[in-house]
Design a protein that fits this description.
Strand order of the largest sheet: 1-2
Number of helices: 7
Order of helices and strands: HHHEEHHEHHE
Distance between the termini: 39 Å
Helix content: 40-55%
Largest sheet: 2 strands, antiparallel
Shape: elongated
Length: 184
């Protein structure tokens, strides 16, 4: 006996609305992104740090070569003695590369090389591709001195650069990993 016969005042549309939200929640639950584990996040950080560090070393080497080739610096013990502004130029160039790397990679591709290797990507809290300003905020929040310590086990899988920019690092192919839990 259908509920229409039990209660003649219930419309068929109202009966469908009672059943539909449960089914929709199940479907949405299956499509939720899976948050990346702390181990994957640490590996992302290590790989990206090696890439940025190597590039910054190369930038410093090239700038040093250009400054030394100009011949305007005194040479002591076979090495040019660089003035203080040389180090300002090297550090500024390195910081610009750091920002350029993360902003370009995460705003265009949604991932850095480290995230590509670990199968993760950056998304907004609603699961869509992050906006450029979210990525810019995320990049500058990485410069907070204690940002790496914000990844304590008890605080979850999001650091300050995630929470301040309203972004999440998720698995790019969540169907292949069952051991990680759904982000809620």
């Amino acid at each position: 006996m259908s509920s229409l016969q039990e209660n003649p005042f219930v419309s068929p549309a109202a009966e469908q609305e009672l059943v539909t939200p449960i089914e929709e929640k199940r479907e949405k639950r299956e499509n939720l992104p899976v948050a990346a584990s702390l181990e994957r996040r640490r590996l992302n950080h290590i790989v990206d740090s090696l890439i940025v560090g190597a590039a910054c070393y190369g930038i410093g080497y090239v700038i040093g070569f250009v400054f030394a080739a100009s011949g305007t610096f005194p040479i002591a013990q076979g090495r040019p003695q660089f003035p203080a502004y040389f180090w300002v130029v090297v550090l500024s160039s390195s910081m610009l590369f750091f920002c350029f790397y993360f902003i370009l990679m995460e705003s265009v591709f949604g991932r850095t090389i480290g995230k590509l290797l670990t199968g993760t990507k950056v998304v907004g809290e609603n699961g869509e591709h992050p906006h450029v300003m979210q990525v810019v905020g995320r990049t500058f929040a990485r410069l907070i001195p204690f940002d790496p310590q914000s990844f304590k086990e008890d605080t979850g899988r999001r650091g300050w650069h995630d929470t301040l920019s309203s972004t999440v690092v998720v698995l790019s192919n969540p169907k292949s990993v069952e051991e990680e839990t759904f982000f809620q």
